[in-house]
Specification:
488 residues; alpha+beta; Butyryl-CoA Dehydrogenase, subunit A, domain 3; 2 domains; six-stranded mixed β-sheet; four-stranded mixed β-sheet; 14 strands; binds flavin-adenine dinucleotide
């Protein structure tokens, strides 16, 4: 049992995994130009856990002993524990300005909750409860980095609207034997997939509770080098540019991949749910894993909104436009978004309560509100960067230009009121990476969809919202109840 170093994490990725990118099977994800630096950033996060000044913030002593584990695996028993968890998740999120959505603490938070609620799984089959507990300990003791996949690809939306997956493509059971389950099909998307250690196949949450859905009712986890498992990557946004030229894409390419299962064996000890669509649909809510995942997500939202507020202020100050009321108004919008996310986080922790599994769980409504509104707010943040940056997002000579015969001209024509030419271009190249590059646009898509289809998340929110007292108040008012109250 030990916290791994970044070097150990990278060594762990050099296995026989099957990763395809650009028509080639990737021999070593830690050396491939489209994946290497994303993996190195994760390694740097692992090393951060070893920094003496951050040890108490980022890690905790397992069972009070000498061994330590990442804070997101700490089962919270008090509100102070929740605050320790968010402090650690905020620290990691601020390293990337919230641009890394799938840092390992996201899955760690979900498996902490699953383990705390292992009886939920044991209720389906006793061994599933044990498997979830043992797997949580494996993640903790080997300091594993996980990705996950939740969504079945669909061929025909009209046919699958009732929750019956497309048998041609969706991941499903082929057969079971004494060793375990044999599964076949695909799942999308696994962010961080190719540069993580293991894949958690989460239960799809929108299954029709019927006999036809049972083969699709699966939850398990496997090492990425499992025979028959293939990652099909999209194009990488890391084009090998320098950190100056692409400050975000050169560091934070976390890769999204479709996962194909070619008659893959899932050993029984790695199965958490199987053959029970109702349990799959209920898993996140009943275990509160979704709430602890939202807790991590809102920490990311705070870090991301703060990062963009800082960027907008730096852009405005660079040309002394920060004195203009219209510009102040634009940036104030971004500040409201950052302050809203912080307020949701504080409210969730302040109103936290012990749940059925004796886990101190943040209040759901502030976090669920944050996860539903941030996908609508983030496009406005990116738009504000475009509006404030305008042509400066395009007036961006490269680092090589500053080392060429052009340098003198650049030093002359590109300075701003408070920044020399190089710093000015560096700043607007960052703004470009947030709001105009391929990397930046993927961030928009990520924020819109990573937690689920927006219309389904909104209707789920409507479903759990405590509407009755508010509706009663309106009917009271219409029946003149309000006046009575006013009369005293
Ligand atoms: C960058 C990125 C990273 C991701 N990373 C992960 C990951 O790590 N793990 C993971 O499990 N998933 C991941 N996802 C997948 C994500 O969970 C799904 O994209 C999301 O759940 C939406 O499902 P879908 O893409 O199949 O969209 P669809 O369900 O096909 O929806 C497409 C559009 O149609 C609309 N729509 C669909 N059905 C209806 C309806 N009934 N009524 C009205 N409108 C409807 C949706 O709102 C949406 O706008 C990622 C997605 C993105 C974009």
């Amino acid at each position: 049992m030990a916290l791994r170093t970044g070097k150990q994490f990278l060594e762990g990725l050099r296995d026989d995994r099957e990763v395809w990118l650009g028509g080639e099977r990737v021999a070593d994800v830690t050396a491939h130009p489209g994946l290497r630096r994303g993996a190195e950033t994760l390694a740097a996060l692992m090393d951060r856990n070893h920094r003496p000044e951050l040890r108490e913030v980022l890690t905790y002593p397992v069972d009070g002993g000498a061994e330590r584990a990442p804070m997101a695996l700490l089962p919270p028993r008090t509100r102070e524990d929740l605050a320790r968890r968010s402090a650690a998740m905020l620290d990691w999120a601020r390293v990337s300005g919230g641009m890394l959505g799938r840092t390992p603490d996201y899955l760690n938070a979900s498996f902490m909750a699953f383990a705390a609620a292992h009886e939920f799984f044991a209720a389906v089959r006793p061994e599933f409860g044990e498997n979830v507990l043992r797997y949580y300990e494996t993640i903790r003791d080997r300091d594993l980095v996980l990705t996950h996949t939740l969504v079945n690809p669909q061929v025909n939306r009209r046919l699958t609207a009732d929750g019956t997956p497309s048998p041609e493509v969706a991941l499903h059971l082929v057969r079971e034997d004494s060793r375990g389950l044999i599964v076949r099909g695909a799942r999308l998307l696994a962010t961080l997939g190719p540069i993580s250690d293991e894949l958690a196949v989460f239960p799809s949450t929108v299954l029709k509770v019927s006999a036809e859905s049972r083969p699709f009712a699966l939850a398990f986890a496997l090492p990425n080098a499992t025979p028959g498992m293939k990652y099909v990557c999209r194009d990488s946004y890391d084009h090998g540019k320098s950190h100056f030229d692409a400050p975000l894409a050169s560091r934070f390419e976390e890769m999204d991949a479709v996962v194909i299962f070619d008659d893959v064996l899932v050993p029984w000890e790695r199965v958490f749910l199987y053959d029970d669509p109702a349990a799959c649909n209920a898993a996140y809510k009943e275990t509160n894993a979704v709430v602890h995942m939202m807790h991590q997500v809102v920490c990311k939202n705070v870090a991301k909104a703060e990062f963009i507020v800082g960027l907008l202020c730096a852009m405005a100050e660079a040309s002394e436009r920060d004195q203009l009321p219209a510009v102040q108004g634009m940036i104030a919008e971004a500040m409201w978004i950052a302050e809203s996310m912080k307020a949701f986080l504080r409210a969730a922790e302040a109103d936290a309560a012990l749940d059925t599994w004796s886990t101190m769980t943040p209040a759901r409504m502030p976090l669920d509100t944050a996860r539903n509104v941030f996908p609508k707010m983030y496009p406005r943040l990116a738009e504000l960067v475009q509006l404030l940056g305008s042509s400066s997002l395009m007036a961006t000579p490269s680092e090589a230009d500053f080392e060429s015969p052009l340098a003198e001209d650049l030093e002359r024509y590109f300075p701003l009121a408070t920044l020399d030419a190089r710093d000015r271009v560096g700043l607007f190249r960052l703004a470009h990476d947030v709001a105009a590059s391929g990397f930046g646009n993927r961030q928009l898509l990520y924020e819109r969809f990573f937690f689920g289809p927006p219309e389904r998340m909104a209707s789920a929110f409507y479903g759990i919202y405590d509407k009755t007292p508010l509706v009663d108040r309106v009917h009271d008012f219409l029946r003149g109840g309000a006046e009575d109250a006013g009369e005293g």
